[in-house]
C-alpha cells in the first residue's frame, strides 16, 4: 500500500516537473517547427537565476513569503532576455531552413548558454532550499512530502489550463493555430507570422526557465543541469507527439509514473524505463500519441 502511494505521489510530482520543463519545447516545435535543443540552456538559466536570487534575498533576513514571487520573476527575466537574444539575434535569420540545420544551430546555442551560466555564476553548486522547507511537509498515508512538491503540481496544472484556454478561447490563440496549420497562407491573409514566432519563442523560453526556477529549491543547481532536462523533455514530447500540448501532458504523466515505479520497484532500471516506454509507444504510434497532422501540399 505504501509503495503504491509513493509511486503515485512521486510519479505525479515528477510528471509536473517534466511537463513544466517540456511544454515550452513542444510549443516552439508546434508553431515554428524547430526542435530547440537550446531549451536546456533556458532551463539552466532559470534554475541559476532563481537559486542566486533566493540566496541573495534570504541573506537580507526578510520574510520568506516573497521568495515565491522571486522564483517566477527570475524565470521571466531569464526567459525573456535569453529568448530575445537567441530568437532576434540568431534564429530569425534561419527561418525556412532545413530542420536538421536548426537542430545543429540550437545545439550550438545550448553549448554557448552552458558556458554563459559558468561565466556568470561560476562552477560551484547553488543550493536554495529555503522555499521548499519553509512551507513545511504533510503526511500522505504516513509518508512525508514537502508542501512545495504539491505547489509545483498545482503550477503545472495551472500552466496547462492557461495554455489550453489561450490557444482555444482567445483571438490570438486562434490566429496562432492558423499559423501552425499553414504559415504561408497565414502570411497571405495578413497575419504577422514573424511576430507570432517571436512571441511563441519567448513564451517557450520563459516556460523552460520557469521549470528550472521552480526546481531550484529542490535540487542542487550545478553545471550541466540543462543537458539532463533536454533529454528527458525530448522523450516526453516524442511520446506525446511533437507539437501537442495535450501530448506533452500525457507524455509527462507516462514518463513520470514509469520512472517512479522503477525507482520504487527496481532502481537500476530508472533511466532504462523511460526509454523503454518511449520505444514501445513509437513502435505502435511512430509519431507519438497526439502528433499534429501534417498538411499535404499539392
TrEMBL record:
Highest taxon of source: Bacteria
Task: Please tell me where this protein is predominantly located.
Answer: membrane
Which ranges does the record mark as transmembrane? 6-29, 41-59, 65-86, 93-113, 147-167, 188-214, 220-240, 272-293
Which first-to-last residue range defines the signal peptide?
none
Membrane topology listed for this record: Multi-pass membrane protein
Q: Which CDD domains match?
A: TM_PBP1_LivH_like (cd06582)
What InterPro entries does UniProt report for this protein, alphabetically? ABC_transp_permease, BCAA_transport_permease
Named from the GO MF annotations, one term is: transmembrane transporter activity
State where the protein is found.
Cell membrane
Record GO biological process: amino acid transport
Q: Which UniProt keywords apply?
A: Amino-acid transport, Cell membrane, Membrane, Transmembrane, Transmembrane helix, Transport
GO cellular component terms, A-Z: plasma membrane
Keyword GTP-binding in the entry? The reply is: no
Q: Which family does it belong to?
A: Belongs to the binding-protein-dependent transport system permease family. LivHM subfamily.
Q: Under what name is this protein listed?
A: Amino acid/amide ABC transporter membrane protein 1, HAAT family
Q: What is the lineage of its organism?
A: Bacteria, Pseudomonadati, Pseudomonadota, Alphaproteobacteria, Hyphomicrobiales
Amino acid at each position: 500500500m505504501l509503495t503504491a502511494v509513493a509511486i503515485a505521489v512521486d510519479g505525479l510530482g515528477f510528471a509536473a516537473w517534466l511537463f513544466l520543463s517540456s511544454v515550452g519545447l513542444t510549443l516552439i516545435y508546434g508553431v515554428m517547427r524547430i526542435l530547440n535543443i537550446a531549451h536546456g540552456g533556458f532551463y539552466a538559466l532559470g534554475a541559476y537565476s532563481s537559486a542566486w536570487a533566493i540566496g541573495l534575498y534570504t541573506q537580507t533576513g526578510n520574510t520568506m513569503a516573497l521568495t515565491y514571487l522571486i522564483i517566477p520573476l527570475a524565470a521571466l527575466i531569464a526567459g525573456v532576455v535569453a529568448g530575445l537574444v537567441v530568437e532576434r539575434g540568431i534564429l530569425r535569420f534561419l527561418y525556412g531552413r532545413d530542420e536538421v540545420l536548426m537542430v545543429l544551430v540550437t545545439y550550438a546555442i545550448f553549448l554557448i548558454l552552458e558556458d554563459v551560466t559558468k561565466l556568470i555564476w561560476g562552477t560551484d553548486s547553488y543550493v536554495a532550499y529555503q522555499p521548499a522547507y519553509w512551507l513545511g511537509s504533510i503526511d500522505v498515508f504516513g509518508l512525508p512530502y514537502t508542501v512545495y512538491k504539491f505547489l509545483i503540481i498545482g503550477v503545472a496544472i495551472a500552466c496547462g489550463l492557461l495554455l489550453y484556454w489561450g490557444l482555444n478561447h482567445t483571438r490570438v490563440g486562434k490566429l496562432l493555430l492558423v499559423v501552425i496549420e499553414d504559415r504561408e497562407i497565414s502570411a497571405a491573409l495578413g497575419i504577422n507570422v514573424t511576430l507570432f514566432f517571436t512571441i511563441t519563442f519567448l513564451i517557450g523560453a520563459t516556460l523552460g526557465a520557469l521549470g528550472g526556477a521552480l526546481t531550484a529549491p529542490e535540487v542542487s543547481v550545478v553545471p550541466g543541469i540543462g543537458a539532463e532536462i533536454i533529454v528527458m523533455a525530448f522523450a516526453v514530447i516524442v511520446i506525446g507527439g511533437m507539437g501537442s500540448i495535450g501530448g506533452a501532458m500525457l507524455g509527462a504523466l507516462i514518463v513520470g509514473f514509469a520512472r517512479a515505479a522503477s525507482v520504487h520497484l527496481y532502481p537500476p532500471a530508472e533511466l532504462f524505463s523511460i526509454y523503454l516506454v518511449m520505444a514501445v509507444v513509437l513502435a505502435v504510434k511512430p509519431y507519438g500519441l497526439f502528433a499534429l497532422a501534417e498538411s499535404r501540399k499539392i
